[in-house]
Design brief:
Largest sheet: none
Number of helices: 7
Radius of gyration: 14 Å
CATH architecture: Orthogonal Bundle
Helix content: 55-70%
CATH class: Mainly Alpha
Shape: globular
Distance between the termini: 46 Å
Low-confidence stretches: none
Number of strands: 0
Structural class: mainly alpha
Length: about 100
């Protein structure tokens, strides 16, 4: 399984457009399209960002493993947190701080 298949698969599972994923990752829409349609692989720093965003391991992302477990030891809460917009993350952080 190739990297291009995995990133598209992960993006579609989240219901994200290429444009939305590009915004979330801080890259151009063309970059996401290129990653999905060619064997072009982003730099390692960007791979780490992508893997963390989707909560998967680098090996899974690039097709070296079928085990999804990510570096963040996926708790469902954290997986959901990563899908929030920056504004919603700030609201949640403020709410949590108010509980202390």
């Amino acid at each position: 399984m190739s990297f291009s298949f995995r990133i598209k698969e992960l993006r579609e599972e989240r219901g994200l457009s290429q444009a939305r994923l590009a915004r979330e990752l801080g890259v151009g829409t063309g970059s996401v399209g290129m990653w999905e349609s060619t064997s072009e692989i982003p730099p390692v720093k960007k791979l780490l960002v992508i893997a963390d965003f989707f909560g998967v391991s680098l090996d899974y992302l690039v097709g070296r493993s079928d085990v999804r477990a990510g570096s963040a030891a996926e708790d469902p809460f954290f997986a959901e947190y990563r899908t929030l917009s920056p504004a919603h993350k700030e609201i949640l952080k403020a709410l949590v701080k108010s509980w202390k």
